[in-house]
Amino acid sequence: MTISQVDRYGFDQPAVMCAECGLGFLSPRLTEAAYADFYEATYRPLVSAYHGRNIDAITVQDDQRGYATELVAFLRATLPRAPATILDVGGSTGVVAGAVRDALGGIPTVLDPAPGELAVAAGAGMETIEGFAEDLNADNRTWDLVLLCQTIDHLLDVRGTLEALRAAMAPDSHAFIDILDLDYALQAQGAIERVIKVDHPYYLTRATAEAFFSTTGFRVVAERLSHDGHWGFLLARGAPAAPDPVALRDHADRLVRDIWRRRAAS
Questions:
Q1: Strands 143-148 and 2-6
Q2: Distance between CA atoms of 81 and 236, rounded to whole angstroms?
Q3: For residue 166, what is the enclosing H or E element?
Q4: What whole-number percentage of the chain has pLDDT above 70?
C-alpha cells in the first residue's frame, strides 16, 4: 500500500509498505546507474542544503567520530574477542573502521562507492575497495568483523547484500549492522513525509530487520538503540530460519495505523 507520495526534500517519490510484514520501500525508485550519478553529484549538496551546513568528505568526519565512539564502546562490551581483520561496507572516509582498529586492533578494509571519500581512508593507511555494497564479491576472502553502519537503508538489495556479508565472515566471526528504525523516525518527525527520502530505498524496523537476519542466516548476539534512532545489532552466523508471519502481520497493521493516525491529526 502507498504510504507517501513525496519525500522530505520535496521530490515526487512514492513510498509503499508491505501489509504482510511492515517493510517500507520506494516504488518506483532510481536505477542503480541513476543512484551512482546521484551520489557522485547530488547527494552531498542536497543534504547540505537540507541541514543548512556544508556536508562533504571532510566535514562528515566530525559526525562519524561521535558515531564511532559509541560503536567502539558497544563492540568492546559485546565482542568475545578482538578482530584481526575488519571490513567496513559503505565505510566512507574510514573514520569508523579506523576507530575500531585503534581501540580493538585489526587490519581494516573500507568498501564505498565514493572515490573522494575512499581517498581519505587510503590516506589513513587503509585498504580500500570502490563499489556498492551490493557488488561485494570477496573472492573467498573473509574478515573477523564486518561492519554495515548507517548503510542498510541505502541498499538496493537488502537480502542479497546480507547474504554476501555472511559469506565474507570468517568462522566464529561477527557482523555489526544498524538500521534507522522507522518506528523511531516516525515518532521523531511526526509524519511519514518527513521520514521518506530519495536516498533511502528501504525503511526497516527492529522487527523487519530481525526477519531479514533470520532469513539470511544470522542470529542476534546483542543489540542497542542509539540516541538518534539507529537500532544496532551484533550478529553471528546461524542457520537460516523463517520469521513468524503472524507477528510480522500484526507489526505491519500497527505501523499503518500509526501512519494514518498521524496524517489525520496533522
A1: unpaired
A2: 13
A3: helix 158-167
A4: 100
User: How far apart are alpha carbons 56 and 53 in whole angstroms?
Assistant: 10
Q: C-alpha cell of 185?
A: 523516525
Bridge partners of residue 225, in order along the sequence: 231
Domain assignment of residue 143, given as a range: 2-265
How many Cα neighbours within 13 Å face the side chain of 47?
Answer: 14
Give the total number of structural domains in the chain: 1
Contact 162, 179 (CB under 8 A): no
In one-letter notation, the amino acid at residue 77 is A
Q: Which whole-number Å values give the CA distances from 193 to 188, 190, 263, in the listed order?
A: 12, 9, 9
pLDDT per residue over 172-217, tens digit each? Answer: 999 999 999 999 999 999 999 999 999 999 999 999 999 999 999 9
Alpha carbon 199 to its chain's center: 12
Read off the CATH number of the domain in which 25 is found.
3.40.50.150
